[in-house]
Amino acid sequence: MATTSSPSVPDTVTDDQGGRQRRRVGFSQKLGRLDVKLSPYLYISPFFILFAIVGLFPLLYTAWVALHQWSLLDGEGGWVGLENFKHVLTQQYFWTGLRNTISIFLLSSVPQIIIALIIAAILDANLRARTFWRMGVLVPYVVAPVAVALIFRQLFGDPTGWVNEVLSWVNLGPVRWGSAVLPSHIAIATMVNFRWTGYNTLIFLAAMQAIPRDLYEAAIIDGASRVRQFFSVTIPMVRPTMIFVIITSTIGGLQIFDEPRLYSQTGDGGADRQWMTVTMYIQELGWRNQNFGRAAAVAWLLFIVILIIGLINFAFTRRISSERTKAPKRKKVRA
Amino acid sequence: MRKTTRKSWAVAAGVAGIALLATACSSGNGGGSSSETKTANPDEKVTLKIQTFNEFGYKDLYTEYMKLHPNVTIVDDKADKSDTARANVETAISTGTVTEDIVAADVDWMPELIDHSDFFADLGSIGASRWPDWKAKQATDSSGKLIGAGTDSGPEAICYRKDLFQKAGLPTDRDKVAALLGSWDEYFATGEQFMNSPAGKAGAAWFDSIGALSQGMINQLEAPFEDPSSGKITVLDANSPAKAVYDQLTSDKVLKQSAHLGQWTDPWTKAFTNDTKGAWATQLCPPWMTQIIAGNAPDQKNWDVAPVLPGGASNWGGSFLLVPKDGKHVQAATDLANWLTDPAQQAKVFVQYGNFPSAVAATTDATVTAKTDTYFGGAPTGKIFSDRFAAVAHQPFRGAHYFPINDALGKAYTRVDVDKTDNAANSWQKFETDVKNLS
Prior knowledge:
Chain B: Keywords: Signal. Chain B: Pfam families: SBP_bac_8. Chain B: It comes from Cellulomonas alba. The structure holds 2 protein chains of 2 kinds. In chain A, helix 5 crosses helix 14 (about 280-290). Chain A contains 15 helices and 2 strands. Chain A has a two-stranded antiparallel sheet. In chain A, a hairpin with a 3-residue loop joins strand 1 (about 70) and strand 2. Chain A has helices at about 1-5, 10, 15-65, 85-90, 90-125, 130-140, 145-155, 160-170, 180-210, 215-220, 225-235, 240-255, 260, 280-290, 290-335, and strands at about 70, 75-80. By secondary structure, chain A is mainly α. A 5-stranded mixed sheet of chain B has the order 2-1-3-8-4. A 3-stranded antiparallel sheet of chain B has the order 6-5-7. Chain B is of the alpha/beta class. In chain B, helix 11 (about 210-220) packs antiparallel against helix 12 and helix 21 packs antiparallel against helix 22. In chain B, strand 1, helix 3 (about 60-70) and strand 2 (about 70-80) form a beta-alpha-beta unit. The longest helix of chain B is centred in the N-terminal third of the chain and has 27 residues, at about 1-30. Chain B has 22 helices and 8 strands. The chains are: A mainly alpha, B alpha/beta.
């Protein structure tokens, strides 16, 4: 309605053209300015609205639950302040869970990134049937985690799995994959590495393909060997990608759940909590013991741990990126 | 054009929003409307959703029921395992939402549901006299309201390997074996004899793990973990009967007879195919265990069933059907639960699937008692389990903390017997910590 009535206005007010124009420009300008200022926020708002609903709200609500006595079936049972946190922190199990999580995380992420870098470097070279090899490394990632867990449970069977069988050929006694702490962590880390190495390899490969070839040519003219090229050209050039891979695998590693849960039939992380991770502890507190208050407290503690490790990562990132800006400078001088 | 599309989008969004609100309200009012449909006419079309787990053997019965009642459509929502079903039911209780018209529950987590018996409809109309007292009691709350209709049961016998018994110079005849294993003391004494025999020396064990035996021995106690009148946890008290069981099972004499294989683990499942080394001679055997043994070692022809349980008849496992009170078709669901747990249907399930009935009339049904099992050397399993069932006099008291305590106790046994990470005293201390954490 408003739009049909406005054209009739200029017909009646023909004498004051300047005023009309000014008024019009003023309005559309205002709209335009609003458009420029507001619409970017509108365009990104769906994500933030969704994040507020499925990210921020659960986070805050979990904090609220953590401050209460809260049973799975009965719901809220009264304010207890920091009692849940105190109880959990004075319990050995939380620390056991944290130990297992960090141990599995280190055993998986560190070798994973090193191996992924090496494989990516090999794939970056001129191979025959390049696409075949590149697709090949991604195959383990496509396999469902449950299937991976089933296969590895057979491999690391205790005492009669295939790995123990192979070890017995070289006269190594059966390793207690299913009951000793470190062997079980290694077995689970192997599962994680199996799935994620290929994925990280492809990310590294993409980064390596973006390295200007003339850098390598210059290195070859300087007489650098393949290994020297890898350490002096390839690695410095993929640093930003490495930071990305390290951060994502840190977050994923600290929240590890599927693999340790599927590692045994009962899914409880071992009778002595040999491979019970923090996330599994949350589930045990919440659903087996039906104590949501304590489960929420552990969830928040895990959040804080990830935050701390994230901050450490960030500090590293800054250092590495400042090194990166130095690196090309040096190269310029050399060239 | 553009304007109209934008407008229609706005309209669509508005309608969607209102629809969301409406559905949100209607689910909240689910309880109110149920009373109206309850008295609706019996020929009205109803869809009943029933959640079971593992194998209840109801597939053919659903078809049969739908033929008998053309207005009823049954939707089979089978959970992959009991844990998933438990989580689903408890989520339903905690959020007050009803998605299933009938839910199945295992006896191990019935206490938690009885604690919230308000959520479930009273099935008293079916009549508790269909089941023996101990079975009905497992589904009755403190005010006497029956919330579950018993499906199967697990009267225990002893399964044993004839070849290993023969190698050890022990009798192989069912009744003679039964006479040998009347009490736990006799059972462990025979075990010692077995371990010193050629069979034991060749690497065979007497039983799989002490955790498995504990299931039988704990179920023979009156009140293993909690005080029946107050619900207080008593398992850590000085005179706790469960501690006595624990001490006996973790003694050196008993541990020596174990194959050190945790029940349900992959090595345990695989070990059923072992011939002598790594095999074990006896196994606590409710009817459902016979199916597991036969499934794990289809080529092993030496298993048999002895009609005995050391220390007296007892029951291990069994399930119930429950009807959430706020479901849309409570009456129709109750009728279906009634029909499914009727002795005639329970007998059919046993004959076809081997799930042993819990209705008294079904356990004495001719089709049930006549059943024999060729895998177990033609043993009259129907008759044996029927007798074992009749001999069960009571079941232990299970309070609200039964499930986690039993779970923690199982882990305590595993630490000593299977993982060997702790000695008996240390492991009990860890168990104490676990139990104290529950409150």
